[in-house]
């Protein structure tokens, strides 16, 4: 333990002497946690709409007014022909086209039926689906209002009552901030630990360490513990920003969050150290770490649910520690889950930590 203590003193001194590391550890996650949740918002609130009103009647104007009054649609143009409105879509100035045919009001009154045409730009599939659903729902509501005006009775409809649990305001930031916090912890832990041993190789101090009686596990622990401590500080900083900037207060146990964060950091730091033992230069280590962390991020369920992935992708997602920690943080922060409900994920993270650090220790070769 005396040898390990000296190694830790050396690592902490080396970290605090490097003026570039501390801003990278603390300033970068702070700025990113303030900016990324603002951009990573899948709520569709500004849908551009081009209207082709070939009727110019009272009902057509009422329909257009009702669509725009919802606040979800922004009118980009009123045209008299579909071809003219289509140019808005081709120029990326409109997401949807609503065409109201000539004789809309007359046919609706006389024949009690009329058709509308909606064209949707489906390049952005998510926006197209949601925007089309919004517009269809508004047209259906307008149809019910017309029928009520004529008959004095609303058509029979199923009354669906929604109960939104865990995120009653449906604020997308409440869902994204915990996941982005895990991502930042992964970036800080994975990249910095991946560059650690390689830096010793490049400046030539690794040979001096190799001729000492320091054991391999002591050397790896000496590299891991300082960044583990700094990672917990970053995690604390992230929870503070989530509380005071986004108003997200964890419903579950704070100590349980730190327990999982501690184990996860051991796993991700072990992964970085493993990369460092294989790499010969910092540039090589950085590219290898970036390659794997990018895969971890895209397969983790941060932006898209793992349930919607194909089977092979779900298997790959299951084999990454990031997936399990994102799920745990969201469950504890938003649902208030207890250890009994997340114990399986805890077991996975422990296995990842033991496997990755054990591999790093075995792969580190001392030469004299």
Automatic annotation (TrEMBL):
The record's InterPro entries line, in alphabetical order, gives: ABC-2_transporter_component, ABC2_TM, ABC2_TM_bact-type
User: GO molecular-function annotation terms?
Assistant: ABC-type transporter activity
Q: How does it sit in the membrane?
A: Multi-pass membrane protein
Q: Name one GO cellular component term.
A: plasma membrane
Predominant place of localization: membrane
Sorted alphabetically, the keyword list is: Cell membrane, Membrane, Transmembrane, Transmembrane helix, Transport
Bilayer-crossing regions: 21-40, 175-198, 225-249, 255-275, 287-305, 311-333, 345-362
Q: Provide the protein's localization.
A: Cell membrane
Q: Does the keyword Cytoplasm apply?
A: no
Q: Which residues form the ABC transmembrane type-2 domain?
A: 132-367
Q: Which Gene3D superfamilies match?
A: abc type-2 transporter like domain
Could you tell me which PANTHER family the record lists for this protein? MEMBRANE COMPONENT OF ABC TRANSPORTER YHHJ-RELATED (PTHR30294), MULTIDRUG ABC TRANSPORTER PERMEASE YBHS-RELATED (PTHR30294:SF29)
Family recorded in the similarity comment: Belongs to the ABC-2 integral membrane protein family.
- Please state what the protein is called: ABC-2 type transport system permease protein
Question: Source species, please?
Answer: Siphonobacter aquaeclarae
